[in-house]
């Protein structure tokens, strides 16, 4: 009996990998095995860095809020604690945006928290 290799599916799988590897340098875009290894490593980095991006943005927001609150004579930790106690439902992303783009509005929030 002849050997069955399911050639159409195998070729489609390889074609998918080679198409995804376009734009890579040298063997990374020409040789299937090298392209597959490169893509798998790239997908690992992509998965990891999707998580890391969230951490990076949170650090940025905290730094912006801290800088703005210190200009008002308050530390970041005391400000966030007071915001939570007052029941102000703004997260760090919104607070950082206010601190950067709408300083007058941020100042009113700080004043409301100080009382």
Explain how this protein is built:
The protein is an all-alpha fold. It has a single domain, classed as Ribosomal protein L20, C-terminal domain (c-terminal domain of poly(a) binding protein, Orthogonal Bundle). α1 crosses α3 and α3 crosses α5. It is rod-shaped.
In short:
This protein has a single domain (7-114), classed as Ribosomal protein L20, C-terminal domain (c-terminal domain of poly(a) binding protein), CATH 1.10.1900.20. It has six helices and no strands. It has helices spanning 7-20, 27-30, 32-71, 76-86, 92-101, 103-114.
Query: For the CA atoms, what is the radius of gyration?
Result: 26 Å
**Count of domains:** 1
Classify the secondary structure makeup into a structural class.
mainly alpha
First-residue to last-residue Cα separation: 87 Å
CATH architecture: Orthogonal Bundle
Mean pLDDT: 96
State the total count of DSSP E strands. Answer: 0
Tell me, what is the CATH class? Mainly Alpha
Which stretches are poorly predicted, pLDDT < 50 over at least 5 residues?
Answer: none
Key phrases:
mainly alpha; 6 helices; 115 residues; rod-shaped; c-terminal domain of poly(a) binding protein
């Amino acid at each position: 009996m002849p050997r069955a290799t399911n050639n159409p599916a195998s070729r489609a799988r390889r074609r998918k990998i080679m198409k995804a590897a376009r734009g890579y340098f040298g063997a990374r875009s020409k040789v299937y095995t090298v392209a597959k290894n490169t893509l798998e490593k790239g997908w690992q980095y992509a998965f990891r860095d999707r998580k890391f991006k969230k951490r990076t943005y949170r650090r940025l927001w905290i730094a912006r809020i801290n800088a703005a609150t210190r200009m008002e004579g308050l530390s970041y930790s005391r400000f966030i604690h007071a915001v939570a106690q007052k029941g102000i439902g703004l997260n760090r992303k919104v607070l950082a945006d206010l601190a950067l783009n709408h300083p007058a509005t941020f100042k009113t929030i700080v004043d409301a928290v100080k009382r």
